[in-house]
Amino acid sequence: MHNCYAFDGGNAGDWRVVSMSPRCGAALESVEYIDVRRSDRREEIPTSTWTLHGQISNLRYATRAEVTTLRSTQEALGRPEARQAALIPIKKSEAWWNLAQDERRSLFEEQSQHTAIGVSYLPAIARQLYHCRDLRQPFDFLTWFEYAPENAGAFEELVTKLRLTTEWRYVEREMDIRLERYR
Amino acid sequence: MHNCYAFDGGNAGDWRVVSMSPRCGAALESVEYIDVRRSDRREEIPTSTWTLHGQISNLRYATRAEVTTLRSTQEALGRPEARQAALIPIKKSEAWWNLAQDERRSLFEEQSQHTAIGVSYLPAIARQLYHCRDLRQPFDFLTWFEYAPENAGAFEELVTKLRLTTEWRYVEREMDIRLERYR
Q1: What is the rounded CA–CA span in Å between residue B179 and residue A134?
Q2: Which secondary structure element, helix H or strand E, spans residue A64, and what is its range?
Q3: Using CA of residue A36, residue A43, residue B4, residue B156, what is the dihedral sign?
Q4: Predicted model pTM
Q5: Burial of B30 (0-12, 13-18, 19+ CB in 10 A)
Q6: Cβ–Cβ below 8 Å for A136 and B42
Q7: Among A36-40, A44-48, A75-79, which stretch is predicted with the lowest mean pLDDT?
């Protein structure tokens, strides 16, 4: 099992950067392209401006019922029609990480409907979460979304809803990077 | 915040190895001493026979009530009287990691009383959990226990109880290393 991925920001890659907007906290340096590759987390590509590493890991909050719904509804990354994407790296505050599991679960779902909001945009908006807090990266998560151009409006709704949740009050660094498939 | 630790098995270190017993899965090579140090996880000590890396991370199952009990009862590592220790690296099966959060929580506590068993031996048996699954290490967790020699019997009870739990059926590799403070 090899679940580590690297996101190289630079002047070449499969995805062309359409916009980079710092939502809060320090901005990432502007780049023209992002390349996504499987990786050992120790590698660096010398030509990239920055590299973010993340890892697909086990689900941390979803119940069995939620997992069943997700798996039956979501589609994989890489659909030919999904020519737009968003990479939104997020870091949560120490206050979040100091919460107990039941408190984080309650904020995540009962108060913020994080999974429920995501499910309501499936299968149009495909999603993948990469964990990186335990890899000592500058962010805790790299969130990735892929969708067809005709679903760009739905994606705006989705991120707007998530950012209005109670959970989002614990986000202390967030960078919003919009992409289109280049090759 | 720098929460990464390395456990170097070799011929020198703060802890002398009293015994090394493979409980299940592949054994670790025998060593005479283990040294515990803060680390960047990328470092290796060339003189050590093996090095296990782990990281103190957020709690994954404990509720607020359990966290409050733990924090009010447990003692820190490094007590002068705690001259005995155990390092028990553990790897859980893919079946465990594929469970949903509510299923893992139920197995961990409602069915296995993992926290409750640990709490019943506080403050005598000090504990620290190091996570390493997301560091791509050979184990998922490094569990560490420290106690005074007069509490060695209590420690045997504690590990015996944990190994009889339903949760332990998901442990597919476990090495039991007993130590005494050397310097």
Answers
A1: 28
A2: helix A64-73
A3: positive
A4: 0.92
A5: exposed
A6: no
A7: A44-48
